[in-house]
Amino acid sequence: MKLLIINGPNLNLLGKREKTIYGERDFGSYLSELRARYADIEIGYYQSNVEGEIINAIHEADGVYDGVAINAGGYTHTSVAIADAIGGVSVPVVEVHISCILAREEFRHVSLIAPKCKGSVMGFGLDSYRLAIESFRK
Fold it and tell me: Range of 38's domain?
């Protein structure tokens, strides 16, 4: 099985920004842990702060990966284009959030990408990514 994790804007700052929300761990060390834990799964990774690059990564995942876990960051609430990209590919996509977006500011309560995704995982810290991976193991 091949899975791709896509992280959107500002997630390259994990471990540095808003530690009370996102924790103190950088994503690189967590990704190494995921790859070791799921040695039977090829886990690709892509991060960009640019909307169009995220869209390209979604398009390029189609037919190459068996699933995508995406944390679109702030684009979750604003990007019709990312939602359309998810809806336009056949690869299943799971929405991931480190924090519980429903417990945060009101503008974060709406996810434009959720209706196009297989499911959503939120509020479990970095472990939300592990739970998304588990959802593909069925």
Answer: 2-135
